[in-house]
Each structure stands twice: as structure tokens, then as C-alpha cells.
Amino acid sequence: MSLRTPIGKVRGLGSAKEGTHHFWVQRVSAVALIPLTLWLVANLICMTGAGRDDVLDFLSSPFNAIVMLLLVIAGFYHLKLGIQVILEDYVHGEGAKLVTSLLNTFVCFAGGAVSVFAVLKIAFGG
Amino acid sequence: MAQVKRPVSPHLQVYRWTVTMASSILHRATGVALGAGALWLAWWLLAASTGYEAFECVQAFSTSIVGMILLFGVTWSLMFHLLNGIRHLAWDVGYGFEIKTATTSGWVVVVLSVVLTIVAWAVGLSMTGGY
User: Fold this and answer.
1) Are the C-beta atoms of B57 and B111 separated by less than 8 Å?
2) Residues of A with CB below 8 A from B45's CB?
3) Chain A neighbours among B 37-66 (CB < 8 Å)?
4) Are B124 and A51 an interchain contact pair (Cβ–Cβ within 8 Å)?
5) What is the pTM of this model?
């Protein structure tokens, strides 16, 4: 016998009311990051010893700027989701969990905002 | 009821380490390390957009001994997390769950991540004169 209501079973959202959303977006961002990080590594290798002018030149290309934007957005989103799981697993006090989760969200959004701003500033001509 | 002091699971120190167990915890550890790497990238981008002085500041840190060791660690973390992430995605669609397969893929990820890190650094350092 199950105490779950028929509508609850159909919705399939579970006790956290989110269903598989977190799991799914973690995988979507993971798949996106495979080509994006390979692109970053290849380009960072090529930019070994590069000066600021070389970086500005690199990001003045629309393609490079757009891919870099996709990378930092997917990256910081994936990071936020991943750290959230670690916090939920290892931080047991409700207060500490709330504070560290908020901090995680703020730091990841800040890192993403800083990166997006910097790339756009360079791409639109510094 | 009397409290009996039984060992509380999981008591990690009594387990024999296996590559599947190590790659699991390393996936999390490298994920956290990549968080630091992501902030480093954000700092690098912001400095590049700000000015020559700010950029030199990041470069001075990144090319210092401590910076290079950290960057090497971030490179390996990225390679490991990337390869092991692909291993996880294969599991997510239902492949590679047999113990033998999981052990083999674990070793492949560990060895390949080290090889790719060394290759990346070798190519990068050989290109230093390019700029």
C-alpha cells in the first residue's frame, strides 16, 4: 500500500517538488561543457605567454567571444549545481546548509557576471 | 533501550581502496578544484578587460612557482573531471555498469588524465616563444 496520492505519482516531483530537474540540467550543462572546455584548453595552450593585446585580439573575434560566453555561463551554472549537491550531502546543520548554499549561489552568479561583463567589454571594443 | 556502540557506516578507513571508489571521490574533489579554476578564469578575463597593469598582476601570479603548480593541478582536475564526466554520462544512459568494465574505465580515466595533462603542458611550454 502506498500513501502517495495518484496526482503525486503522476507529477513525479517527489518530496523536494523538483523531480529530476537538477539531475537533468547538470547533465545538459555537462554535455555542453565537453566541446567548450576542449576549445578553452586548446586556445589557452596556444596563448601560453600571450600578453594582454593577444587576449584582446582573441576575444575581439565574434566567434571566440560567443564561445567564451557560452563556456563561462555553462561552467558557472554547472559549478553551482555541483557544489550544491556536495553541500547537501556533507553539511548537515540546517543553518549552515542555508548559509553555504546561498554563498555558493552568490559566488557562482558573481563569477559568471564578472566573466560575461569582461568578455562583452572586450568584444565591444574595450 | 541501551545504547550499543556499533561502528557507524561508512567507516572509510577499513575499506580497501579501489579505482572505482577513488574516481568517485576524485570527481567531487576535482569539481571543487575547478571551482577555484573558474574564478581564476574570471579574474583573468576581468583583468584583461581592465588594463595592462591588472593583466600583468594575474600573469605574475599565474607564472609564479606557486601559480604554475596550481595551474598544473587545475589542468589535471579539468582532464580528470572531463574524462570521468564522460564515464558518468555513459552510466547515465545505461552503459558500463559491469564491475570489470567500471574498473577498466576507471583506470583509463586516471591514466589518460595524467597523459593529457602532460601533453597539454608540453605543447604549451613549447609554444611559449610563439608570442
Assistant:
1) no
2) 68, 72, 114-115, 118-119, 122
3) 38-39, 41-42, 45-46, 48-52, 55-56
4) no
5) 0.90
* Total tally of structural domains belonging to chain A: 1
**Does the residue A15 lie in any domain?**
no
Per-residue pLDDT of chain B (131 residues), as tens digits, is 567 777 666 667 777 889 999 999 999 999 999 999 999 999 999 999 999 999 999 999 999 999 999 999 999 999 999 999 999 999 999 999 999 999 999 999 999 999 999 999 999 988 865 55
Cβ within 8 Å of B, A 67-86: 68, 72, 75-76, 79, 82-83, 86
To the nearest whole Å, the CA of B4 is away from the closest chain A CA by: 23
C-alpha torsion sign, points B75, B79, B84, B88: positive
Domains present along chain B, CATH in parentheses: 17-130 (1.20.1300.10)
Residue A50 lies in a domain: yes
Residue A32's CATH number:
1.20.1300.10
Asked if residue B38 lies in contact with residue B52, where contact means CB atoms within 8 angstroms, the answer is no
Determine the structural domain holding residue A54 and report its residue range.
21-123
| SS (HEC) of A81-125 | HHHHHHHHHHCCCHHHHHHHHHHHHHHHHHHHHHHHHHHHHHHCC
Question: Closest to B82 (Cβ–Cβ): which among A37, A83, A86?
Answer: A37
Rounded distance, CA A45 to CA A47, Å? 5
Q: What is the pLDDT of residues A26-53, one digit of tens each?
A: 999 999 999 999 999 999 999 888 899 9
